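Mods, move this if it's the wrong board.
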Amino acid sequence: MKVFNQTLTIETKGFSHIIDITNQLESAVEESGIENGTALVFVPGSTGGVTTIEYEPGLLKDFPELMEKLIPSNRSYHHDQTWHDGNGFSHLRSSLIGTSLVLPIYRGSVIHGTWQQVVIVDFDNRPRRRNVVIHLLGE
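Not the wrong board. Structure tokens:
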């Protein structure tokens, strides 16, 4: 069994900024030499997220609009009263989407749909430098 780790550093803009990391993930799998196994993508922290989406202009607008409808950024949350940082909405969005994603690796490639990209979403209320952990396990 082989284990391979890589950490990406990504500059984000906050406020549901979506970054496509599919190519970086596929490059990590190629570099690892793993033919069959699993790929874990993880964003440390409680205001980021990892998911899949079709990375196209319409959805890059629709997704943040959906997050704003579900968990508005313009209201006060109990978290804000505790920490006074105004990012309670960011934590809630992160917990809804999740901070990790597992995908299969088969014949040396990450399995995903043709129009399905792996993305990092920064929900915080400010730009950030995010680390993204790619952890590969397989043979």
